[in-house]
Write a structure and sequence with these properties.
By secondary structure, the protein is mainly α. The chain has six helices and two strands, in the order ββαααααα. It has a two-stranded antiparallel sheet. Helix 2 crosses helix 6 and helix 3 packs antiparallel against helix 6. The protein starts with 8 loop residues before the first strand and ends in a 21-residue tail after the last helix.
Length: 239
């Protein structure tokens, strides 16, 4: 029993082995890109929306609304990044029910790459939004003593994202394989349904965590609180 699609070599191109992780990642990307192109290729303001266009708009508006709910403000700059993360992870996990498909999210290399993308996106969004000095000041709050701990926190976030996503997908595949040998007729159907639900939850959690991390890096600095303007001295009579 293979625990990761990295262990499955499908073919070789120019002396380089193409694993199941690489091939199925290409398939997911091609599926998402082709679907988006097919739905939007005849997009016209005067043309009534089709069912596929309506479904796509519902997905996009749902992601946009969730981002706004998490950040507390409109954040269109997060829609493309967090939305792409959600769609890629969700599609990879949902295709688990296709016979012979090995989800690339069951590979530690894929989940690590996704986590590194979040790790790189956090300072990029932060510097773009607040400037280099404003972003770097986050690492010295509440004091300069916290600098190494804040830097360590950034890397631990990436590690936790990768291990959490990989562990959940891999454990589901392992449990399904074990139950397949115990009861090959009924339990795999149940495990596939649970796998679909778990895959959607993991895609949601992964994209929400990425949104939270980026939102905290791009949040505007709060100005120092100022008290109310001093009024007339209490206890004194006015003429």
């Amino acid at each position: 029993m293979t625990l990761s699609p990295d262990e499955i070599t499908l073919f070789t191109i120019l002396g380089r082995s193409i694993s199941a992780t690489v091939l199925f990642t290409w398939i997911v990307m091609a599926l998402l890109t082709g679907s988006a192109w097919l739905v939007t290729r005849r997009l016209r303001p005067e043309q009534p929306p089709s069912r596929w266009r309506t479904a796509l708009e519902v997905i996009v508006q749902g992601i946009e609304g969730q981002i706004e709910e998490v950040t507390g403000r409109r954040a269109p700059h997060l829609l493309y990044f967090a939305g792409t993360l959600f769609l890629f992870v969700a599609t990879s996990n949902l295709l688990l029910v296709v016979p012979g498909f090995h989800p690339p999210t069951a590979s530690l290399s894929t989940t690590t790459a996704l986590a590194l993308a979040v790790l790189i996106a956090v300072p990029l969004f932060g510097i773009t939004s607040r400037g280099l000095g404003g972003y770097l000041r986050n690492y010295t709050r509440p004091s300069i003593v916290m600098l190494p701990f804040n830097v360590l926190t950034e890397f631990s976030r990436a590690v936790s994202l990768a291990i959490r996503l990989y562990g959940n997908i891999m454990s589901g595949a392992v449990i399904a394989a074990i139950l397949l040998g115990v009861a090959p007729f009924f339990l795999p159907v149940v495990m596939d349904m649970l796998g679909l639900l778990t895959g959607l939850i993991q895609a949601y959690i992964f994209s929400v965590l990425a949104t939270v991390y980026i939102s905290s890096a791009t949040a505007p600095s709060q100005p120092p609180a100022t008290g109310p303007a001093p009024g007339p001295a209490q206890g004194k009579e006015t003429p």
